[in-house]
Amino acid sequence: MEEAQRRALRRGRARLVLALQVAPLWDPLEERGLFTRTMVEELQSAGSRGDQARQLVIDLETRGKRAFPVFLSILRDTGQGDLADMLIKECECLPVSPQLVDLRPVELDLRGEKRNKKCLIATCACQVYELKADPCGHCLILNNVEFSGDSNLSTRDGSNVDCKKLEKRFKSLHFDVLTRQNLKAEEMVSELRALARRDHSALDCCVVVILSHGCQTSHIQFPGGVYGTDGKPIPIEKIVNYFNGSNCPSLRGKPKLFFIQACGGEQRDRGFPVDCDSPGNEAPGGSLESDATPFWTLAGGTDEPDAVASLPTPSDILVSYSTFPGFVSWRDASSGSWYVETLDNVLEQYAHSEDLLNMLLRVANAVSAKGRYKQIPGCFNFLRKKFFFVCK
Q: Per residue in 156-201, pLDDT tens?
């Protein structure tokens, strides 16, 4: 399929999801060789009519050069010529050049040269996630501060500071923010499942932030776990899988971002000497605490991986951890955690000009330079495109 046709499908996706009648399409799609019977059955199992329509449009991009004109013909044959006309109009109004370029200013720190030089990085628009909806998507923040006495977990002083910063930040980035505080493990799972079951068809993204004590867990894909206030752990892997392509069809092909402020284990990193100039900031004043808890081996294993017809299951997912698996994550009782404080500062300074991965590198670099003990954030990245927040 030509790039102009792909972009026409993407630009017309919202109207197709709203209006496309999919039931009359299944037989012609199979008869004309665009999809096999198995593929059609997988599309039919995608969920509601809107979910089926969205997945059909996404999958059409993978069906070769004939897919676009044949699809238009089928639309006309099934009495949906207005949608075919809309797609033709979208295709014709696009520039003739196949490379739609998006120029974004980025600050570069060049050793030995004047700092804060501005340059323009050319990015093909097809390599950038489109965030056109307002709000961009839902942002769920789970903030656990006070834990039950029998959990043997301490109060997470400073976490409310983190929570307020992130509420304000994601609202400014055009997300619909929902905060829940002091939830037991079962209540956390209930909130996450409720968000995953919502219809995200009209939205372009989803963000989940978890502020809690954490631990190591057995895993297949994503390491670590977080605790409910009752001291019961939830694997990060399980949380992420609620939102994958099989369990949350209306978020297929859309970025799903997870930010985890919790320990990955009990190890304390004292770092190692370096010869280059490296800031040696001591931890900020106040009481320095960690979100560490002992290693847990979970009974029953973890969720089995599943598959989606057009995209790998973990696609369009990014999980940002406050610390390396196995190590503690530091939090100051008065100013909040190192990770969230730095993340918030970086988003404030660079969200208008840099993509998310580049900003997370800035976060990792800044946090790694702090304190007597060391901490370095990291991420598991399965995004397929560059992600830029919306800053207006």
A: 988 999 999 999 999 999 999 999 999 999 999 999 999 999 999 9
| CATH code assigned to 137-268+311-382 | 3.40.50.1460
Active site residue 248: no
Among the four given CATH numbers 1.10.533.10, 1.10.3720.10, 2.60.40.1180, 3.40.50.920, the one describing domain 3-92: 1.10.533.10
- Is 138 in the active site? no
pTM: 0.62
| Active-site choice (138, 213, 215, 379) | 213
Burial 239-269 (b: 16+ CB within 10 A, else e): bbbbbbbebbbbbbbbbbbbbbbbbbbeeee
At 243-278, the pLDDT tens digits run: 998 899 999 999 999 999 986 444 433 333 434 444
* DSSP structure class, residue 127: G
Which residue out of 139, 248, 263, 379 is catalytically annotated? 263
